[in-house]
Amino acid sequence: MKIFIDTANLAEIREAHSWGVIDGVTTNPSLIAKEGRDFIATIHEICELVDGPVSAEVIAQDAPKMVQEGRLLAQVHKNVVVKIPLTFEGLKACSILTKEGIRTNVTLCFQASQALLAAKAGATYISPFIGRLDDLGIDGMDLIRSIVTIYKNDPTLKTQVLAASIRDPLHVVQSAEAGSHVATIPFKVLKQMGVHPLTDKGNAQFLADWQTAPDTDIIGQTSRWLAGRK
Ligand code: G3P
Questions:
Q1: Are both 154 and 223 inside the same structural domain?
Q2: Co-location of 62 and 129 in the same domain
Q3: Centroid of ligand 1 to alpha carbon of 165 (angstroms)
Q4: Span 109-146, pLDDT tens digits
């Protein structure tokens, strides 16, 4: 499963990217507005930072204007994927942009039937929102499982499932188990994914025990040993 970071914050993207784990980035109007910076400059900077799909969302609500915005956004950088809301106008725009070779991420998906329509319209990615369903007491993972099954049952559907609105590491693990192609993850959750108290405890114990070894300098010891073999 690919890992995208769900943020428009450059410092977060830079940090997570330095771990070598980021395949792409998703943004939305709320995340962009939160940064208080110019939309297009931000998207371009993200694209220069991460050589993978970077979702930039249209604001228009009617298909012709969505297409116009999408065409322009796609010219900002080769990495841009045009994000479109899952409305009938959005589906129309998706199918037009797809025919022009522009990649799309159809977002705000809350039921499997919507995902089927998005795939028929040629979406590159479908974004089901797990956390927002969980908030309503509906199991968001059921939606991921259902969409994965529907897409697998029809090999003509090429749309990738992009699990979104992820709230914790379990969402990520369960998305991967369910066969989601991508999960887009907030920085906070990415950090939670990489830590465990037993890792820290074990590491501290190894370091303490190492101090009792006769020679604790690995670089010096190894360099001498390697030089001695020449
Ligand atoms: O980017 C779309 C999605 O991941 C938003 O998540 O936490 O606002 O429900 P959230």
A1: no
A2: yes
A3: 4
A4: 999 999 999 999 999 999 999 999 999 999 999 999 99
Active site residue 99: no
189 and 164 in a common domain: yes
Give this prediction's pTM: 0.95
* Together in a domain, 157 and 209: no
Q: Contact, 180 vs 161, CB < 8 A?
A: yes
For the CA of 167, the nearest atom of ligand 1: 7
**Same domain, yes or no, for 129 and 56?**
yes
| Residue with CA nearest ligand 1 atom 3 | 165
Atom nearest to 184 CA in ligand 1: 4
Closest by Cα among 77, 112, 74 to 93: 74
Q: Is the pLDDT at 230 greater than 90, yes or no?
A: no
Question: Which pLDDT belongs to residue 64?
Answer: 98
The CA 102 to ligand 1 mean position distance, Å, reads 23
Domain carrying residue 48? 2-193
Phi, psi of 83 (to 5 degrees): -95, 130
In the chain, alpha helices (H) = 10-18, 29-35, 39-49, 63-76, 88-99, 112-120, 130-134, 140-153, 169-178, 187-193, 197-210, 218-228
Statement to judge: residues 10 and 110 lie in one domain: yes
**Is the domain of 186 the same as that of 214?**
no
- Total domains, the chain: 2
State the pLDDT at residue 101. 98
Q: Among 26, 109, 134, 165, say which to mutate for ligand 1: greatest number of ligand atoms within 8 Å of CB.
A: 165
Give me ligand 1 centre to Cα 122, in Å: 22
* Residues flanking ligand 1, CB < 6 Å: 6, 26, 28, 129, 131-132, 164-165, 184
Q: Two tokens at 195? A: 């830590």
